[in-house]
Design brief:
The chain has helices at residues 12-26, 28-35, 41-60. With 65 residues, the protein is mainly alpha-helical. The protein has one domain.
Length: 65
């Protein structure tokens, strides 16, 4: 549960903005999307390796982002 500390004179829009930012940082939505379907550990690991290779190729200058 997210708790937002707000002052009495604070605008509701600012409090909502704080809530949205805190919600995004907690990564609740990402966890929900991951749990919608099961991915095998081997597939998950393969995706991580492919992502690392891609990042490394960008860093070395082979691919321009």
């Amino acid at each position: 549960m997210l708790i937002i500390d707000s002052k009495d004179c604070e605008n509701i829009d600012k409090a909502l903005k704080k809530y949205k930012k805190k919600f995004e940082k907690s990564k609740v939505l990402l966890q929900l999307r991951e749990r919608q379907s099961y991915t095998k550990p081997s597939v998950r690991r393969r995706n991580e390796v492919l992502k690392a290779v891609y990042k490394q190729s960008i860093a070395s200058g082979k691919i321009e982002a």
